[in-house]
Design a protein that fits this description.
3 helices, mainly beta
């Protein structure tokens, strides 16, 4: 049996080689000396558990694509697609080739989202599992790099598209160390397979026979993604979205219809047209050690000119997930475009249940640090994070239910408010044990929104007034060198540059916090929590 429960019979694993340097489709591809020439020939092979498809480094597969349909390995005997030889990664330049037809088979959560149409993908894994895809580069250009983008019907393009439909739950799909650049898709079609890496689940043609289309055991790790439209990395929008219409998401619903055991780790996403990393309809996904640089590049009225619908993008966030955990990520330079992007935050606790952001670092984001978005963003927690020089506002509760913001450190640019909203009203929040530092020489007045916000035991440096609430107080210098955090990149987040946010020996924040139930096991710097807490992200 394979990982989807289908009988495969006896399969003898084989290794196939492919090279544009000295290959030929007249060869059998069974040795490095006689490799296949095209990915089309590689795609036509009858594959099974334990097979290996190796692409020679230095090869450039122009106007070609790797499309696999209905092939199955397993976690124990995966089908591995990888590079061999010396030199640069083998590269697939799809250039708009590799067309396939996408159709969710049902309306989406908003009927204005396009749900069907043609897509060009450099790599397509359709109803495949037990797959490990490693060390490949790909592009999918469609226009000059600096051309304006404003056509509603621009072709949908993807680097890697992964689709579940007619094979039941797909298990064990691992994407590692991929280099995905210059994928010029359609910035309007946010739920088509557009962008760098995109997972989707469609309505099965015969669900009774094949089972529910979803994913289990997904790993996206150490990938480099740059200049892609619309998404950087997205996993996994689903045709079963109608089962997620309540604020609280039951364990039964998410386990039956959602993606399980999803990990997005160590990726670098630079200048996506829209959002950088989003998990959708996932059960307890783990998103950690990623870097987002410059999300929302095209969410403006020049590049996104043909429609006002959907001109919103944040950097790293969940949609309709249960207990999503975001930690050790760095997000910076997310674009707001002077309000043309209605979001622009580093983090967005969007419609979902139990989202936790902890141990993250945001800086220089034009739209702010955190948005809590909408009436179905329930049970949100934001703790032990550091924000440096984020603009617009630190926290934007947008018509949202109660969120808990505690033990964070905010180093705020002069004149930037702590609270604001991009919606009709500021949602309620509990602000507790946070350290707020207003940079500059002039104390900063604030609208604290005391009518909907509960402030308790926070420390304020450089503010003209304090909010209502118990235990809030003003203080002088508290930290060793605030404002000196660095910037990460393809090698990972710059978390090691944040020692300036450690408390000074005589900091009034030391031991001045109050216990918060369920506060986690450690602080931003790895100190184990014990005894009376301090205020801010450092508990050392």
């Amino acid at each position: 049996m394979n990982s989807s429960g289908n009988t495969t019979g006896q399969h003898m694993p084989a290794t196939y080689y492919c090279s544009t340097l000295h290959g030929s489709d007249a060869y059998d591809g069974r040795s490095p000396e006689r490799p296949l020439r095209s990915l089309q020939a590689l795609s036509a092979l009858a594959l099974g558990p334990g097979d290996r498809l190796l692409l020679e480094r230095g090869s450039v597969f122009a106007n070609d694509c790797l499309h696999l349909h209905g092939v199955h390995g397993s976690a124990e005997a995966p089908i591995v697609i990888d590079a061999y030889g010396e030199g640069p990664l083998p590269r697939i330049d799809a250039n708009g080739e590799g067309l396939w037809f996408q159709d969710y088979g049902t309306e989406l959560d908003n009927p204005l989202h396009r749900r069907r149409g043609y897509v060009s993908s450099a790599v397509l894994l359709f109803d495949c599992d037990g797959i490990e895809l490693n060390h490949l580069a790909m592009t999918n250009r469609g226009r000059p790099r600096d051309a304006a983008y404003n056509d509603l019907d621009t072709m949908n393009r993807t680097g890697v598209a992964v689709v579940a439909q007619n094979a039941g739950p797909l298990r064990h799909i691992c994407l590692r160390a991929l280099d995905v650049r210059h994928v010029h898709g359609n910035v309007y079609d946010k739920h088509m397979n557009n962008g760098g890496i995109y997972f989707t689940a469609f309505k099965p043609l015969d669900e009774a026979a094949t089972g529910i289309a979803r994913y289990d055991d997904v790993l996206i790790e150490d990938c480099y993604v740059e200049d892609v439209n619309r998404w950087g990395i997205a996993v996994a929008y689903t045709a079963y979205c109608a089962h997620f219409m309540t604020p609280e998401i039951s364990d039964e619903v998410i386990a039956r219809y959602g993606a399980t055991r999803v990990v997005v780790r160590g990726n670098y996403v630079k200048d996506p047209g829209g959002d950088a990393i989003t998990t959708m309809y996932c059960d307890r996904p783990l998103i950690e050690y990623n870097v987002s640089d410059g999300a929302g590049r095209q969410i403006n009225k020049t590049d996104y000119a043909e429609s006002d619908f959907g001109r919103v993008a944040a950097a790293v966030w969940p949609w309709k997930c249960k207990n999503a955990l975001f930690q050790f990520n760095e997000v910076f330079r997310t674009r707001y475009h002077g309000g043309e992007n209605q979001d622009g935050q580093a983090f967005d606790a969007d419609w979902g249940d139990g989202t936790i952001y902890q141990y993250n670092y945001s800086h220089d984001n034009e739209g702010g640090c955190l948005m809590v978005c909408g009436a179905e963003a329930v049970n949100t927690v934001f703790r032990y994070n550091i924000s440096q020089n984020d603009d617009r506002a630190m926290v934007l509760p947008a018509d949202s239910p109660l969120a808990y913001i505690y033990n964070n450190t905010f180093y705020m640019k002069p004149g930037v408010p702590f609270l604001a909203t991009n919606s009709q009203s500021v949602g309620p929040t509990v602000i507790e044990n946070n350290l707020l530092i207003a940079a500059g020489d002039t104390p900063t007045p604030q609208n604290w929104y005391n009518d909907v916000t509960r402030y308790e035991n926070n420390l304020f440096c450089g503010f003209a007034d304090l909010p209502d609430g118990c235990g809030n107080r003003a203080a002088g210098p508290c930290l060793q060198a605030p404002g000196t955090g660095g910037t990460g990149g393809p090698d990972g987040p710059a978390l090691a540059t944040l020692d300036g946010y450690r408390l000074t020996a005589d900091s009034p924040a030391r031991g001045a916090g109050v216990p918060v139930p369920g506060a986690g096991a450690r602080d931003f710097f790895g100190h184990q929590l014990s005894g009376v807490p301090s205020i801010g992200a450092d508990q050392g």
